[in-house]
Amino acid sequence: MPADPASPRAVPPSTSAASPRAVRARACADQASPRPAIDRSAGPVRHPGPGRRAFLRAGAGSALGAVALPGLTACGSSGGGVGPDGKVTVELWHGQTDTLKQAIEALVGEFNRTHPAIHVDAGGGATADVMLQKVTAALASGSYPDIAYVFGSDIASIARSPRVLDLTSALRAPGPVPWNDYWPSLREAVTINGRVRAAPALVDSLAVICNTRLFQRAGLALPQPGWSWAEFVDTAHRLTDPSKGVFGTGWPGVGDEDTTWRLWPMVWDLGGEIIAPDGKSIGFAEQGPRALETVASLATGDSVYVDPKPGSAQMYQVFLSGRMGMVLGGPWSLPDIIAAKTDYTVVPLPSYSGRPVTISGPDTWTVFDNGTARSAAAVAFVRWLNAPEQDVTWDIGAGSLPLSTQSARRPEWLDHSARTVGLPAFTKALESARVRPVHPAYPAISQAVGEAVVTVLLGRSTPERVMRDCAEKADAALLIPR
């Protein structure tokens, strides 16, 4: 339930600048907001052009041999997708727009140049926010792409189709990125029932972005790693200045996944899980009320800006305008903050235990079975794309983080990270990041939790009462046969 825009907790921003990039955590496509492209011309993000040495090179007569990957099988015809000239065409629905579209298409061009027996066609598909619906319809019609950019929260639904390739052998085989070099949260995000059902495409993490000027004005020292949620709440209250329209912090107030995912690090830190080990009930019935009590404490004294619109654009605009002391955000936020010339720093999320914990929202490259030749070529492209040399180019262009520890050690990334305040903190957070469960009931759980958070933010009920209602709805969703 969105906040009343007239409420003191939800005031419209005072500027009309372009909306910042929305948080990318999504439970399902009808809850999601797009990952909008942003103008990075004023920020530190650079876009290395094509021309870099590809990890895999193949001559016209040997490229197909190079993509005969171990353990990869497909149900279609082995000759499907091979043209009269012997070239295999792979259809990629990358889902990106503007700057991100330019970044992925530059990489596609480099792959096509260095792999003459394969042509990746990146011209079709849909934007990422409607990819689930588009792919679902395509699978039903029998005419679907070879690769699609699918949100991590949607992979459990998509992977139920027999047309989704099992990539376990392909990604765990020796190759450009050893399986264990991917961050643990990424490995978990693409694994269902012990099988790898997609390739990692993008990863981020959540941390606290602080307006250093507002901290100085309030006479407060900047937070340090290991700080507590109690300190976060106290700092938010101290930063709040109603006479100047300054809020201590903000929280999305729509009740969607953007509202929900910020609560999960609290739950995990308290020892809870989103789904109980038996899979029949939620795993945070005891921890949920305490996490919600922290949210309720923020709402006391109107120190939290409750954003009444999807996408969190207004909340981030309040921060960019210099009227919010702290905001939970990710690396996607930094170019807009730098362009706005906001003095800032980034610190890890607070915790109850003193241990670092955060959440990551990975997205995937999901590969579909269009016959042996096209499937092998599609997997070859994904493996090439995730190799550290290409991954770093994509990460810098997409405003995201390295997919693997190998990529994080690349000189290009280290240089980019050193020149971008806060980026090392987001990368470091990947070491302790967790992901939401890959489970078809998660969207229903997320909705129930989102409604509970908004109810508490607006002071309409107690944490204990809303948690009982939340548990009843979420447990019911888990009992539905799937």
From TrEMBL:
Compositional bias of kind Low complexity: 1-26
Start and end residues of each stretch annotated as Disordered: 1-53
InterPro entries: Bact_solute-bd_prot1, SBP, TAT_signal
Protein name in the entry: ABC transporter substrate-binding protein
